Every structure is written in structure tokens, then in C-alpha cells.
Amino acid sequence: QALLVESGGGSVQPGGSLRLSCTASGYRPALMAWFRQAPGKEREGVAVIWTARSHTYYRDSVKGRFTISLDNAKNTVYLQMNAVKPEDTAVYFCAATPKYEYGLSLESSVYTDWGQGTQVTVSS
């Protein structure tokens, strides 16, 4: 089981940028991903990275604005959020799994370990 510790949330104006970080300890995950959950909505996958190859996949609404990246030496994944919109407001969760059997998945059921979440608020 991995311990995931997130940081970097906060408030930002529309059009601004924010970077989230998530450090894993306990094992080296095969997949690391970011999910988010807005009030009254279901949790949704945002971006995922395959740690062995740094291959990535994004949900359509964040393509071209968000970038997921990995520092293997630090076992840390980042989510660079640019050109943020009010609809990006949510609690963002880091997730990890030791298995790659489902590919670059944004299904929450694939992930075995979760961070505590960090709030991102986009507002003017």
C-alpha cells in the first residue's frame, strides 16, 4: 500500500495557473493519476501517467491546458494547471496503483491508493 501526500492547492483567478504535487511512498506505482470531485458531482479522472514510459492520457475538458508529469527520482507526480476555468474548481485527489493491466485508465476503480485531496478554487 502506498502513502500519497498531495500539495499545491489553493485559489486562483480564471486564466491563471497552479501546480499540484503528489509524492508516493511505500512502493513505486505503475500508474499515477489525478482525479477531481466538485460539490454535488461524481469523482472524475483528469489525467494519468504510466510511470515506466511517461505515457499520458487526459480527459477532453483539460487537454491542452493541464499537463501531468513525473519525477521518478522523487516518486512524485505533478499536475500543471494552466488557463484554469471556474469549472475546474474541485477537490483534487492523487491516485496510484501498482498494476498496469488496464492501461491508461481514468476509472477510479482501477486505483488502490488515494491521497487526502487538495482544494482548488478558480474564482475572480
Describe the structure.
This protein has 124 residues and is an all-beta fold. Helices cover 0% and strands 49% of the residues. The protein contains no helices and eleven strands. The strands form two sheets. Strands 2, 4, 5, 6, 9, 10 and 11 form a seven-stranded mixed beta sheet that branches. A hairpin with a 4-residue loop joins strand 5 and strand 6. It is globular. It starts with a strand and ends with a strand.
Give a brief outline of the structure.
0% of the residues lie in helices and 49% in strands. With 124 residues, the chain is mostly beta strands.
Task: Please specify the SSE layout and strand pairing.
Elements: E1 3-7, E2 10-12, E3 18-25, E4 31-37, E5 44-50, E6 55-58, E7 66-71, E8 76-81, E9 90-97, E10 113-114, E11 118-122
Parallel strand pairs: 2-11
Antiparallel strand pairs: 1-3, 3-8, 4-5, 4-9, 5-6, 7-8, 9-10, 9-11
* Radius of gyration from the alpha-carbon trace, in angstroms: 13 Å
Number of helices: 0
Mean pLDDT: 96
First and last CA, distance:
39 Å
User: How helical, in percent, are the residues?
Assistant: under 10%
Q: Classify the oligomer.
A: single chain
Low-confidence stretches: none
The arrangement of helices and strands along the chain is EEEEEEEEEEE
Portion of residues in beta strands equals over 45%
- Rough outline: globular
* Count of strand segments: 11
Please state the structural category: mainly beta
Main sheet, how many strands, which sense, barrel? 7 strands, mixed
Features:
about 120 residues, mainly beta
